[in-house]
Task: inverse folding
């Protein structure tokens, strides 16, 4: 697996779980600890608020991790236009088309797509090569951060979908730190965490431990 396909420890932000410390400081600490990829996810923030957050996150990340935004292709396009160091976008099945995103952001952008079934993966395989960089596969276990999630796959279900995926897979949803080694052995290109990092008393320490597990 090349470095370009290594999403490693992948932080998905949650403004509520980050609490008084805030998203930007949580991300700074987590990246200090070794987080590889950060996804700004804030379902309730306005266009301008998300754009401002991206600018702040790009500053604290300072090229040390990939930065993508959840759902908001329009914000990603504007951030790119303004020269903010954003890598791309992660889209759900009901969001903008990945073909639209690829055309809007260009060949060098990172485009992720949620894909939880064999049918989703077959649809990705039918796209022109290079449209999607990775798929987020889950949930691994039931999780309160995404109450409308599909049935949990477990590590075995994740391994099955990874084996047939045409692009690298990232595990998401109810993942525990102790799952990192098993998921990597199953072929994961990254492992996503929300509450384990956002709600951590010391995100840098937790991220460092997770990053060590990823390297093993």
Result:
């Amino acid at each position: 697996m090349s470095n370009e396909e290594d999403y490693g420890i992948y932080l998905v932000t949650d403004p509520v779980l980050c609490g008084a410390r805030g998203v930007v400081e949580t991300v700074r600490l987590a990246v200090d600890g070794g987080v590889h990829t950060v996804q700004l996810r804030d379902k309730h923030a306005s266009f301008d608020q998300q754009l401002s957050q991206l600018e702040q996150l790009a500053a604290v990340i300072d090229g040390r991790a990939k930065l993508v935004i959840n759902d908001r292709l329009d914000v990603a396009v504007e951030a790119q236009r303004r020269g903010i160091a954003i890598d791309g976008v992660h889209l759900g099945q009901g969001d903008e088309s990945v073909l639209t995103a690829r055309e809007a952001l260009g060949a060098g952008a990172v485009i992720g797509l949620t894909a939880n079934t064999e049918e989703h993966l077959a649809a990705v395989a039918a796209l022109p090569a290079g449209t999607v960089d990775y798929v987020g596969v889950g949930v691994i276990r039931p999780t309160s951060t995404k109450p409308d999630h599909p049935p949990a796959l477990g590590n075995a279900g994740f391994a099955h979908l990874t084996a047939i995926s045409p692009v690298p897979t990232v595990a998401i949803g109810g993942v525990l730190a102790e799952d990192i080694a098993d998921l990597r052995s199953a072929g994961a290109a990254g492992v996503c965490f929300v509450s384990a990092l956002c709600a951590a008393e010391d995100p840098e320490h937790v991220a460092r431990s997770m990053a060590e597990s990823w390297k093993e």
In short: The mean pLDDT is 95.
